[in-house]
Task: inverse folding
């Protein structure tokens, strides 16, 4: 099934905490925003305050054993954070996020980094692209229709982003502007289709999820997302960046091998019946 990529530049806003919004829903679809948090005290309030509570039905914070005041800050914001008793890693945090969002009845799940690097105001337009049946997954792109470097992205990160994205697009036969964003939206059907428990608990989880979506025949769209690079924004160190880059290259090669029928790692083995039932047969009307 072909992978379609859409580009939209939109500026809107919205959010919600762990209570039902008065209006709620988009096209009768419940929307949850998940915030995988680790030491996010300095930026959590600004992130949460810019989520449109009249549209989002629930905001879930999953704290990955932070060493700062993240948990107390979430509670001061009226949220009920989910706590890990030990640090499970970025990918492990997301696994908990999606598990709880689906268990709470979300039809659309938007993952937003709580470091205020990505605009929370784009949650609504991204969720709408799924709620009205256009896409199964939407990525907020820092590259589309803007200069990421002018907005503060370090030049070495920009170069790494472009090199890795080019490599990934060539091996996956996709046309995405980037694979490395911390703002993503997913349909319930897609999340239920993908064997996320087989993915890494580290940062490469994000890339594995994208190629899983491709393997499942998901429709992937993109939306231009202005970003901020401030001292409080989270960042991984050079050593982990190198490990992440190697993981990205490995993931791309694994998908290429899977697509050409050579061999498939466990996380790319998606039953045909799930692909058909969850994605093809349950498009929103």
Result:
């Amino acid at each position: 099934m072909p992978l379609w990529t859409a580009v939209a530049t939109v500026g809107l806003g919205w959010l919600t905490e762990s209570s039902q919004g008065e209006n709620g829903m988009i096209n009768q679809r419940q929307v949850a925003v998940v915030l995988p948090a680790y030491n996010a005290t300095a930026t959590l309030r600004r992130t949460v305050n810019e989520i449109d509570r009249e549209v989002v039905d629930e905001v879930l914070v999953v704290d990955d054993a932070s060493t700062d005041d993240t948990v107390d800050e979430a509670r001061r914001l009226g949220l009920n954070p989910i706590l890990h008793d030990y640090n499970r890693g970025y990918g492990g945090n997301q696994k908990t996020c999606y598990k709880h969002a689906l268990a709470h009845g979300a039809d659309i799940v938007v993952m937003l980094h709580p470091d205020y690097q990505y605009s929370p105001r784009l949650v609504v337009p991204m969720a709408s692209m799924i709620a009205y049946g256009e896409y199964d997954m939407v990525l907020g792109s820092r590259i589309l229709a803007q200069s990421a470097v002018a907005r503060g992205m370090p030049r070495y990160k920009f170069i790494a982003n472009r090199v890795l994205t080019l490599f990934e697009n060539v091996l996956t036969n996709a046309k995405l502007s980037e694979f490395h964003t911390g703002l993503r939206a997913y349909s319930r059907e897609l999340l239920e289709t993908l064997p996320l428990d087989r993915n890494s608990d580290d940062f490469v989880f994000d890339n594995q999820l994208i190629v899983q979506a491709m393997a499942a025949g998901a429709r992937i769209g993109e939306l231009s997302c202005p970003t901020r690079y401030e001292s409080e924004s989270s960042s991984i160190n050079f050593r982990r960046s190198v490990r992440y880059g190697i993981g990205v290259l490995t993931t791309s090669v694994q998908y290429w091998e899977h697509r050409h029928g050579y061999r498939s790692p466990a996380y790319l083995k998606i039953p045909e019946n799930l692909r058909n039932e969850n994605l093809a047969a349950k498009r929103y009307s």
